[in-house]
Design brief:
This is Dynamin N-terminal domain-containing protein. This protein is mainly alpha-helical. The protein contains 27 helices and 9 strands. The protein has 5 domains: 138 residues, no CATH class; 129 residues, no CATH class; 243 residues, P-loop containing nucleotide triphosphate hydrolases (Rossmann fold, 3-Layer(aba) Sandwich); 198 residues, no CATH class; 71 residues, no CATH class.
C-alpha cells in the first residue's frame, strides 16, 4: 500500500483495505464486537479448529500420506471472515496498530495453511500419478498400448467403409474427414487399430499381441489430429529427416511405439519426482537488485532489522551477498566467501569457501576481484510472525546484488532468471527514477518473472510525493504491466534508512538478542511522537507484509504452479490414452468374442470328422484286405486241388520218356499255380484301387485341394520278385505214380461186364498193385470155371492177365500220373502253408498300400484340429487380454479423472480464503 494512501485512510484500516481491493462485502470488518481468547478458557469452535490445523500444519508440510485432509477440503468456517480473535481488545469498528498487526499475523497463518494445503494436495496427486504411471508402464509391457496419432490423409482407399468395429475418430472435426464425399453417412468410421494391424482380412483374424507384432504395418493407427495435438506430456517426440512426427509414429512397429511410450512414462515419473522435490523444498530466494546506490543494502538491513550489509554513499556492493539464517550453519554467525575459482559452493566442503567474521563484510563486498559471492549466516532477531527469513512456511534467503550498471546488468538478469530465485525485488531511487540499466534489467527479468516487487527507496528525500508516485507508476506501467496492475501490493514507496536497526554484531553493548522488532533496546529510535517517522515505519511494515505474501504467492506460482500444470497435462494425456485404449480393447474384445463363437463349433466339428473319417478309413482298409485274403485263399485252394484237371499242355511222349513226362507235368502244374497267384495279385490291385478311391473321396471332402495330389500306383505293388515256387517243391516221381490204382479201380467198376481174362488180369493186376479184392476175384473164377478147369487155365490166364493188366496200366499213365502228382503237390503245398502265406502276403500288401492315403488323411484331419485348437487358444487368450486391458483402461480413465479433479481443485490463482484474502495481492 502506498504511504500516501495510508494517510488518507479513515480510522478503520480493514474497511479501507477491503474497499481498496474491491473485496466481497463479507470481508469487510464486521460491526459485531470483537472477542478475545484469553487464559485457558474455552475457545470458539473455529478458533480451536484453526489452532489445531496450525499445530498440525506448522508450515513445514503436513503429512502427505494423510488423505483425509484433502478429502475434507477447506473447512468453510475458516474461509469466513469472522471477528479476529485478538489479544488486543478493540471496540467494534475501531482498530489499532496492534490489532491490525494481529490481523496480519492471522492472515499470514491462513496464507500458510492455504499454501500448505495446496502443496499437500499436489504432493498427493504426484504420488498417485506416479503410481498410475508405473502401473501403465507394466501394462504397456504386457499389452502394448495404442498410441493415438493422425490418420494418414492419403490413405482413402484402404479405409473400410462399413466396418462393424467402433471408431474413435468419429468425434473428430471435418478436418480429419478422409473418407471422401462419397462416403455413406451411415458408414462407421475407421476403427482404432493397433500398430501392426491391417485392414480388411486381418480384421477377421484373431490378433494376439504376438501375432500382431509379426503383421505388417501398412496402416497408421488412430485417431484425431486434435487428440494427437492434445498430447503434451506423453507426446512421442520424434525428429528425423523430413517426416512429420505423425508419419514417423505410423512407420513404427507397435512394440517400438510401446517402447517409446515406456520412455516417455519413465521421463514423466522422473519429472514428477523432481517436481515433488521442488514443492517440498521450503527455501525461497529473494533477489534484491537495483541501481547503484539506490539503497539496496540499506533496504536489506531494514528487512533484517540489523545492520548486516555495509551501506555507503558510494557504490560498495560488488559481489552477490546472500543472507541466510544461521540455523543453516549450525547457528554460527559468519561469512562464507566464495572465491571466483570455485564453481559451486558447498557448505560441507571447506575447500569451496573462506570463513570470515561478520565484521570483515565491508572489506569483502568491495573485493570483486577475488570473490564472486558470499553467504552471510546471521541469527534472525525477529519473531516468527514478523521475520522474513523464517516466516513459518519458507526459509527465505535475501540476496543483495551489486548495483546495476552497463556491465552488471546482464549478469544480474541471468542471476534473476535462475529457477531458484522466486522473487525479484527491485530497489529504485525515488530521486533518480529508473536508469537505462534499470529499464534494461526489468525488461529482461519481466520476461521470466511477470511480477517484480518494486521498492521506491529514499522517499523521504522527495518533496512532491504525489508527483513522484505518479511518475514512477507510469514508468512501471511501461516496464512491467503485470506489476503495475498489482501496484498497490507490488510497488512501495519507503525510506529504508528510517527503519531502526540493530548493530551487525549482537553481542556488542546495546545489541539486541533478537526477539522483538520495532523500538527495542539498541535501535536507533527515530524519536517518540515524531509522526512522520512513524508513518515511514508503518509504510515499511506494509511493504514487509506485502513482500511476505508475495513470496508465498510467488512460491505458489513458481513452485506449485508448474507441478499443477504438469499434472493437469499429464493426467489429460493419461485420460486420452486410456480412452483410446479402452475403446480399442473393447473393439478387440467384441471381435475375438465373435471369432471365438465361430471357432468353437468348427473345432468340435473337426474333432467329429476326424473320428468318423478315421473309422471309415479303417473299415475300408480292413474290408479290402480281408476280402483279398479270402479271395486269394479260395482261388489258390481250388486251383491247387484241381490243377491236374487243367490243360497242362504236356503231350505224352510214350513209355520210354515217362520220367521226362512226369517232370514236365510237374513244372506245368507249378506254373499254373504260380499264374493263379499272379491272378490273385491282379485282383488285389483292383481292390486297392477301389479302396484308395474311397479314401481319396473322404480326403477331398475334408481336406480339400491339399488331398488332390495324393495318389498311389497299384502297378508298383507286388513287383517284388517272388521266390520261384519250384525251388520249394520237391516232387519225387516214383514208379507207383505211373499206376494210379485207385483210378484204375474206379475204371474196373465202370467196365464190369468185360471178359474173364480181363477180370482175372484185373484181379491179378489188382493183386499186383495192391492186392485189393484178390480173394473175391479168385472165388469168382473158381465158381465160374470149376476147380479142375481152373487149375488148367490158371497159368495161361495168369500170363494173359498180367500182360493185359500191365499194358492197361501203362496206357493209362497220361491220366493217372497228373492225378498222382497233383495229390503229391497238394500235400507239399499244404505242408508249406502255401495258400495262407500267399493270401496273407497279398492282403498285407493291400493294407500297406492303403495305409499311406489313410495316414495322410488322418494326419491332415489331426492338423486341422490342432490348427483350430491353436486358434481357439490364441483367441481365448486374446479375449482374456482384451478383457483385462479394457478393465484396466476403464479404471485408468476413472483414476486419472479422479486425480485430475483433485488437482483442478488446487486453486493457485484465486483469492486466498477468508481473512487472508484481505491481504492478498
Ligand atoms: N535519505 C535516504 N538515504 C538513504 C535511504 N536508503 C539508503 N540511503 C543512503 O543511500 C546510500 C547508499 O545506500 P546503500 O544501501 O549502500 O546503497 P546500495 O544500493 O546498496 O549501493 P551499492 O550496493 O553500492 O550499489 C547510503 O548512504 C544510505 O544511507 C533512504 O531511504 N533515504
Amino acid at each position: 500500500m502506498n504511504s500516501n494512501d495510508y494517510s488518507d485512510q479513515d480510522a478503520d484500516p480493514f474497511r479501507a483495505e477491503s474497499s481498496r481491493r474491491d473485496s466481497p462485502p463479507q470481508q469487510k470488518a464486521p460491526l459485531r464486537p470483537n472477542y478475545m481468547t484469553v487464559g485457558s478458557g474455552s475457545t470458539s469452535e473455529s478458533a480451536a479448529r484453526l489452532m489445531a490445523m496450525i499445530d498440525q500444519d506448522s508450515g513445514y508440510g503436513g503429512s502427505v500420506a494423510d488423505g483425509e485432509g484433502l478429502a475434507r477440503g477447506w473447512h468453510p468456517g475458516i474461509t469466513e471472515d469472522r471477528p479476529t480473535p485478538s489479544h488486543t481488545p478493540v471496540l467494534p469498528g475501531e482498530s489499532s496498530a496492534e490489532s491490525e498487526n494481529e490481523r496480519r499475523v492471522f492472515a499470514s497463518h491462513v496464507h500458510q495453511l492455504f499454501y500448505n494445503q495446496n502443496k499437500n494436495a499436489l504432493n498427493r496427486a504426484i504420488g498417485q500419478t506416479v503410481e498410475v504411471l508405473k502401473n501403465l508402464q507394466k501394462k504397456n509391457s504386457e499389452w502394448p498400448a495404442h498410441y493415438p496419432s493422425v490418420q494418414r490423409p492419403t490413405d482413402h482407399s484402404s479405409v473400410p467403409h462399413a466396418d462393424p468395429r467402433p471408431g474413435l475418430h468419429h468425434t473428430q472435426s471435418t478436418l480429419d474427414n478422409h473418407y471422401g464425399l462419397d462416403q455413406s453417412p451411415t458408414s462407421r468410421p475407421t476403427p482404432p487399430r493397433r500398430a501392426g494391424t491391417t485392414v480388411g482380412a486381418a480384421h477377421s483374424q484373431a490378433e494376439s499381441s504376438s501375432a500382431a507384432a509379426q503383421t505388417a504395418i501398412p496402416e497408421p493407427r488412430l485417431i484425431t489430429p486434435q487428440l494427437s495435438q492434445e498430447f503434451s506430456v506423453l507426446k512421442i517426440d520424434l525428429k528425423m529427416g523430413n517426416l512429420s512426427q505423425a508419419e514417423l509414429v505410423h512407420s513404427l512397429e507397435k512394440h517400438s511405439i510401446a517402447a517409446l511410450l515406456d520412455g516417455q512414462i519413465k521421463q514423466s515419473v522422473r519429472h514428477l519426482y523432481s517436481l515433488r522435490e521442488r514443492i517440498e523444498d521450503i527455501s525461497s530466494k529473494v533477489l534484491v537488485t537495483g541501481d547503484l546506490n539506490a539503497g539496496k543494502s540499506t533496504f536489506c538491513n531494514a528487512l533484517l532489522r540489523r545492520k548486516v550489509l555495509p551501506e555507503d554513499q558510494q557504490p560498495c556492493t560488488s559481489i552477490f551477498c546472500e543472507v541466510l539464517d544461521a540455523r543453516e550453519n549450525d547457528n554460527i554467525e559468519e561469512v562464507h566467501v566464495i572465491p571466483k575459482r570455485v564453481a559451486r559452493y558447498n557448505r560441507d566442503d571447506e575447500r569451496t569457501f573462506e570463513v570470515h567474521p561478520l565484521s570483515d563484510l565491508e572489506k569483502i563486498v568491495t573485493d570483486s576481484d577475488r570473490y564472486s559471492q558470499c553467504k552471510i549466516y546471521i541469527k534472525d532477531i525477529r519473531g516468527l510472525d514478523e521475520s522474513l527469513l523464517n516466516n513459518g512456511v519458507v526459509d527465505i534467503a535475501l540476496i543483495d546484488a551489486p548495483g546495476l550498471n552497463a556491465d552488471s546488468v546482464l549478469t544480474t538478469a541471468v542471476f534473476a532468471r535462475q529457477e531458484e530465485i522466486d522473487v525479484v525485488v527491485f530497489v529504485v531511487s525515488a530521486a533518480n527514477h529508473f536508469t537505462q540499466s534499470a529499464k534494461e534489467f526489468i525488461f529482461n527479468a519481466a520476461r521470466e518473472k511477470a511480477y517484480i516487487f518494486m521498492v521506491v527507496n529514499g522517499f523521504d528525500n522527495i518533496r512532491d510525493k504525489n508527483r513522484c508516485q505518479e511518475m514512477i507508476l507510469k514508468q512501471v506501467a511501461g516496464l512491467s504491466p503485470a506489476t503495475f496492475k498489482e501496484s498497490s501490493e507490488l510497488v512501495h514507496f519507503v525510506s529504508s534508512n528510517a527503519i531502526p536497526v540493530a548493530p551487525a554484531e549482537l553481542n556488542r553493548p546495546g545489541g539486541v538478542d533478537g526477539s522483538s522488532s520495532g523500538s527495542g533496546p539498541g535501535f536507533e529510535d527515530p524519536g517518540k511522537g515524531k509522526e512522520k517517522e512513524r508513518e515511514k515505519i508503518h509504510a515499511f511494515e506494509e511493504l514487509e507484509a506485502s513482500l511476505r505474501r508475495f513470496v508465498l504467492e510467488k512460491r505458489s506460482r513458481s513452485k506449485l504452479a508448474p507441478a499443477k500444470t504438469y499434472l493437469m497435462h499429464l493426467l489429460g494425456d493419461l485420460h486420452s490414452l486410456a480412452t483410446v485404449n479402452r475403446d480399442v480393447a473393447q473393439a478387440e474384445l467384441d471381435r475375438v468374442t465373435k471369432d471365438l463363437s465361430e471357432i468353437e463349433p468348427a473345432y468340435e466339428k473337426s474333432r467329429k470328422v476326424r473320428a468318423e473319417a478315421g473309422e471309415k478309413v479303417d473299415s475300408t482298409v480292413e474290408d479290402t484286405a480281408s476280402e483279398v485274403y479270402k479271395f486269394t485263399r479260395d482261388t489258390l485252394n481250388s486251383s491247387i486241388a484241381r490243377v491236374a484237371e487243367e490243360d497242362l499242355g504236356v503231350p505224352y511222349p510214350g513209355l520210354f520218356s515217362v520220367y521226362d513226362y512226369a517232370e514236365d507235368i510237374k513244372s506245368a502244374m507249378i506254373e499254373i499255380i504260380a499264374e493263379k497267384v499272379e491272378f490273385c495279385e491282379e485282383h488285389a490291385r483292383g481292390r486297392i484301387g477301389d479302396g484308395f478311391s474311397a479314401i481319396k473321396s473322404l480326403g477331398l471332402l475334408h481336406l480339400g485341394d491339399s488331398f488332390a495330389h495324393v495318389s498311389i500306383q497299384p502297378q508298383q505293388i507286388y513287383r517284388r520278385k517272388k521266390d520261384a515256387l519250384a525251388r520249394y517243391i520237391d516232387l519225387e516221381v516214383e514208379t507207383w505214380d505211373f499206376f494210379d490204382v485207385s483210378s484204375l479201380w474206379e475204371r474196373q467198376e465202370k467196365v464190369a461186364g468185360t471178359s474173364m481174362a480181363l477180370t482175372v488180369a484185373g484181379v491179378v493186376g489188382g493183386r499186383l498193385v495192391g492186392g485189393v479184392g484178390w480173394l473175391d476175384g479168385t472165388l469168382g473164377a473158381v465158381r465160374i470155371v470149376g476147380a479142375n478147369n481152373l487149375r488148367r487155365l490158371i497159368i495161361p490166364g495168369l500170363i494173359a492177365g498180367v500182360v493185359l493188366g500191365v499194358s492197361y496200366a501203362l496206357s493209362s499213365i497220361p491220366q493217372s500220373l497228373p492225378r498222382r502228382l497233383n495229390a503229391k503237390l497238394s500235400t507239399q503245398l499244404a505242408a508249406l502253408d502255401y495258400t495262407h502265406s500267399n493270401a496273407l502276403r497279398i492282403s498285407s500288401e493291400v493294407r500297406r498300400a492303403l495305409k499311406f492315403p489313410g495316414d495322410y488323411l488322418r494326419v491332415g484331419l489331426q492338423r486341422n484340429i490342432e490348427k483350430l485348437q491353436g486358434k481357439k487358444q490364441e483367441t481365448s487368450q486374446l479375449k482374456e487380454e482384451s478383457e483385462v486391458a479394457r478393465k484396466y483402461f476403464s479404471n485408468l480413465i476413472r483414476e486419472s479423472e479422479r486425480i485430475r479433479t483433485a488437482v483442478t481443485s488446487v486453486d493457485l490463482e484465486g483469492p486466498s480464503p477468508g481473512i487472508a484474502a484481505a491481504y492478498s495481492s
